[in-house]
Amino acid sequence: MTNKADKALLPAGMSDVLAPDAAFEASVLDRLLADFAGHGYDRVEPPLIEFEESLLTGIGAGLAEQTFRLMDPVSQKMMGVRADMTPQIARIASTRLINAPRPLRLSYAGQVLRVRGSHLRPERQFNQAGAELIGADGAAADTEVIVMAADALGRLGVTDLSCDLGLPTLVPDFCRGGPAGEGGDADLQTRLRQALDRKDAAAIAEFSDELGEDTTGPLAAMLAAAGPASGTLKTLGSLGLKGAAQAGMKLLNDVVDRVQAALPDLTLTIDPVENRGFEYHSGVTFTFFAKGVRGELGNGGRYQANGGAGSDSEPATGFTLFMDTVLRAVPAPELRSRVFLPIQTTAEDAAGLRAEGWITVAGLEECGDGEAEAARVGCSHVLDGGKVRKINKSNKE
């Protein structure tokens, strides 16, 4: 391998973003944040690295295995590189903005770094953009963030968008008081959760002796009910859910009604037993997909915002968009035309062309053939005698 090849080699999951993709990503981020700002979400910028004791507590505790760690040479304390920005927003809300009026609306964008990629997202470093609504509970707050995210994606040109809703608390609430409920058999809970995560109906049926058919029957029905929102809600309504499980189902139904009223063209599905990736969530969750695009565009949901040990928690809901996936779903921009400016071009003329929308590339020395130089530096036009003229690239190849 050559020395140049050695220098170009990057760790797995890392990549250079070159032109024009880097500018495209920046423009998409700007449009998203402008959309969020239009809904009253103020942008904040947390640091890339924090002390472990603040980064990996509260809702950040579940990210410990995905977090790169290093020693701070100044304080001699361990630090972590953020693997997700939501815990940082929760910390800011519970500390720096503790006295700000609620509900608190915050938006953010930035790079995250993870120890491992996944099958659907092999990238380990990528941009996130998102928003959090902190200090508000109920269906109206859940609906606001879902609709805002979906509307922002639509404005970017994402088509065939769908939103898959979930309720990670439904199964625990349904199992409450039984052997697979909180305080019951931990091994049984783990095995049941694994079967549900694998969508293994046969495995669920095998729990009949341990849980009883009164439990496994409805669980199997929930598993099979995943699909279009209306059908799933109808099935859930027929199961005779009680207590917290019934309240959760009614909340989910309310959110579906509100989202459909705001965005009737948005495809809504529900997976009532989905839990993976939503372990710290305490209410309605959601994931965005676009037809024909690999991976999820983003996800979010309700949780208890907690900035760290000793801090009070408060209700919150929000979402994170994964820019690597979003960019695959957004139509590529039309490239602006580039015009080559001979060295004698005045600054005033160059500024006028940029004001008209041209990208100007200035010559730095005299050249005999303006068209040839324009073609060499990637321009489609040349300024000739004060007028912009398209070059004939076929004659320069």
List the helices and strands and how they pair.
Blueprint: H1 3-8, H2 21-38, E1 42-43, E2 49-51, H3 52-55, E3 68-71, E4 78-81, H4 86-94, E5 104-113, E6 125-134, H5 139-156, E7 161-166, H6 170-175, H7 186-197, H8 201-205, H9 208-211, H10 213-224, E8 227-228, H11 229-237, H12 243-262, E9 267-271, E10 281-290, E11 298-305, E12 314-322, H13 323-329, E13 338-341, H14 347-355, E14 359-362, H15 370-376, E15 381-384, E16 387-390
Parallel strand pairs: 1-5, 7-9, 13-14, 13-15
Antiparallel strand pairs: 2-4, 3-4, 5-6, 6-12, 7-10, 8-9, 10-11, 11-12, 15-16
Key terms:
3 domains; alpha+beta; BirA Bifunctional Protein, domain 2; 397 residues; single chain; 15 helices
Describe this structure in words.
- It is built from 15 helices and 16 strands.
- The chain is an alpha+beta fold.
- The chain has three domains: 230 residues, Bira Bifunctional Protein, Domain 2 (BirA Bifunctional Protein, domain 2, 2-Layer Sandwich); 97 residues, no CATH class; 58 residues.
- The protein has a nine-stranded mixed β-sheet with strand order 1-5-6-12-11-10-7-9-8. The chain has a four-stranded mixed β-sheet with strand order 14-13-15-16, sandwiched between helices. Strands 2-4-3 form a three-stranded antiparallel β-sheet.
- Helix 2 packs antiparallel against helix 5 and helix 11 runs antiparallel to helix 12.
- The radius of gyration is 26 Å and the shape is elongated.
